[in-house]
Design brief:
heterodimer; A: alpha/beta; 8-stranded mixed β-sheet; 12 helices; globular; B: mainly alpha
């Protein structure tokens, strides 16, 4: 069986610094390489640099970027009444151009052996679509990176052709299903929120509509990421369960392979040709920061360090089986 | 008449406000991508050391004391050997070596790879590593001061 290693990078705005720390450990210290990397939102800013092993620029970007380098506040009332978002994402667009648009770096991305996909949501069709440097022309791919990072309402949608695109995290925060569809056998997923039982209740009353909107987005985000992980885990468990049934049929009932196939014939098998994946998830043990749209270098550096340490712990826990 | 003038003033101000908003200019901001081998080594070393030294004041102090002598080294091997001798900095020497070789294996750094043992490259490498050490300590100090 050919091994296909995938890296799945979830959304989470400034919390992406945690991902960067984890990748520094996995790729630089452990020498881990991936055949496939799929990113959503902040993960889509990270994915192309992972493909060209540019961890130095990843740490440099996430440790030094500030709020105003990403977004410009629009006056709330003005934005609510007259525009498509509360913030302007022009600075982020320029940063994307600077970090990914430069010809030499883009050529390296096209030559990379690591396939890159980034998730976006088409507002008109409501469907998840993927950006890929081999399938999209460069300007479209760069726009999709921006779109993937554009949290709706907070940042304007990105127009590509006739459609408007927004953050892929609206429907898929940890795009594990894409990794499975692409034939991944081993997946490392980096998720930026803790498990549900480690999310403490917020001890305050939400008074303004903006606070309520932000909290609602957080709750939706947590729910989507939980579902993404649940579906991937369930998928693997079902395939393992079916494999076990077949094995027991052979061992205990003495059936041969064609008899076992016969038992399943006539039933539509949604898992035909699919394989169980080995999934390793690296996520913080506690909430990283209160707002994922708060970019403060000191805070980001601390998150890089937390990601680094957490990845190390997870790898140790996984030993002696190893991640791959 | 006064009322009429006030109305005109109001509309002129409102119009100016919208014109200013439309003309809003955002200067180039944010980090520039790192291009060279040495600046990339500095970035990796900074992160490695900061992640390992966070919360460990005695190690931070020890490293700070040793930086001037590390700066005088002429070869990476000399630096890592020196670090391995110091029990609490032993692991860091290995990790710095990993940072350097991770960056060195990339096709875009063939010049540095080909002339790796040359005195010029080794000297620049030592300086890029010690810059990373200083930067990591500065960042840890900044955080502490802020608290």
């Amino acid at each position: 069986m050919r091994i296909k290693r995938a890296l799945v990078l979830s959304g989470g705005g400034a919390k992406g610094a945690f991902t960067v720390g984890a990748l520094k450990y996995l790729m630089v210290e452990l020498g881990m390489r991936f055949n496939l990397v799929i990113g959503t939102s902040t993960g889509s800013l990270i994915a192309p640099l992972v493909a060209i092993w540019d961890i130095a620029n990843l740490v440099h970007f996430y440790e030094n970027v500030e709020q105003q380098d990403i977004l410009i506040d629009r006056p709330d009332l003005f934005a609510f009444l007259f525009s498509d978002a509360l913030n302007d994402s022009a600075p982020l667009e320029r940063l994307i151009q600077r970090f990914f648009g430069e010809d030499e770096r883009y050529r390296r991305l096209l030559q990379s052996k690591t396939e890159v996909f980034i998730t976006v949501v088409n507002m008109q069709t409501g469907e998840v679509e993927y950006g890929n440097p081999h399938q999209d022309p460069k300007p479209v791919f760069l726009k999709k990176i921006l779109a993937s990072a554009s949290v709706p309402v907070m940042m304007p949608p990105v127009k590509i052709g006739e459609s408007q695109y927004i953050d892929g995290g609206v429907k898929e925060i940890a795009p594990l299903s894409k990794a499975i569809d692409e034939g991944a056998t081993h997946i490392v997923s980096i998720v930026l929120s803790p498990e549900a039982n480690h999310r403490p209740p917020v001890q305050k009353e939400f008074k303004s509509s903006m606070e309520i909107l932000k909290r609602t987005l957080e709750l939706l985000t947590d729910e989507i990421v939980d579902n993404d992980l649940r579906v991937a885990t369930l998928y693997t468990e079902i395939i393992r369960y079916m494999d076990e049934i077949k094995k027991r049929g052979r061992e205990r009932l003495g059936l041969n392979s064609s008899q076992i196939r016969g038992l399943f014939s006539g039933i539509k098998n949604p898992f035909r040709g699919k394989r169980a994946v080995r999934l390793t998830t690296i996520r913080p043990e506690e909430e990283l920061i209160a707002s994922s749209l708060e970019f403060r270098p000191d805070q980001m550096r601390e998150m890089v360090d937390r990601g680094y340490r957490r990845a190390k712990e997870v790898v140790r826990e996984k030993e002696p089986h190893g991640l791959f | 008449m006064i009322l009429k003038n006030r109305k005109v003033c109001f509309w002129v101000l409102l119009l100016s406000f919208f014109v200013l908003l439309a003309c809003e200019h955002t200067p180039e901001r944010g980090p520039e991508p790192l291009e060279g081998f040495f600046e990339k080594v500095t970035a990796l070393v900074t992160t490695t050391l900061r992640s390992h030294l966070r919360g460990d004041l005695s190690k931070q102090r020890l490293l700070e004391e040793r930086i001037p002598s590390f700066e005088r080294m002429t070869h990476l091997n000399q630096l890592t050997t020196e670090m391995r001798v110091i029990e609490s900095l032993k692991d860091l020497g290995d990790l710095i070596e990993k940072d350097v070789f991770f960056e060195l294996q990339k096709p875009e750094h063939d010049k540095e790879r080909d002339g790796f043992n040359s005195p010029e490259i080794q000297r620049s490498l030592i300086l890029s590593i010690t810059s990373g050490m200083k930067r990591a300590l500065d960042q840890l100090r900044e955080r502490k001061d802020a608290n």
